[in-house]
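help with this record:
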Amino acid sequence: QVHLVESGGGLVQAGGSLRLSCAASGRTLSSVAMGWFRQAPGKEREFVAAINWSGDSTYYADSVKGRFTISRDNAKKTVYLQMNSLKPEDTANYYCAATKSYGGIAASPLMYNYWGQGTQVTVSS
């Protein structure tokens, strides 16, 4: 079993930065893909960023490209999402996710087997 716990969310002004962390416990995740998704009130969950098992390949939603950076530290079993130049439209609950065995880039939520509980990010204008 895998348990994912996000942290680092909060309230920030537009243009500010936050760094989200996702710590994994249970089985090792060093060989699987991980990603970040977000869900705003009244909207569907949407893809934000993904990273392959080794961390040398990443993929971003167009809405965050150039502003967000996903990274991972397999030794610490942690995935990060550095968010810069935040906009009010980035306000959402942010979730990290892990696949069960796939190690490439996964942009669809259907490819993920494990999910955290989420951390709220609120960007004020």
Remarks:
- The first strand starts at residue 2 and ends at 7.
- The chain has a mean pLDDT of 96.
- The radius of gyration is 13 Å.
- The CA atoms of residues 52 and 66 lie 18 Å apart.
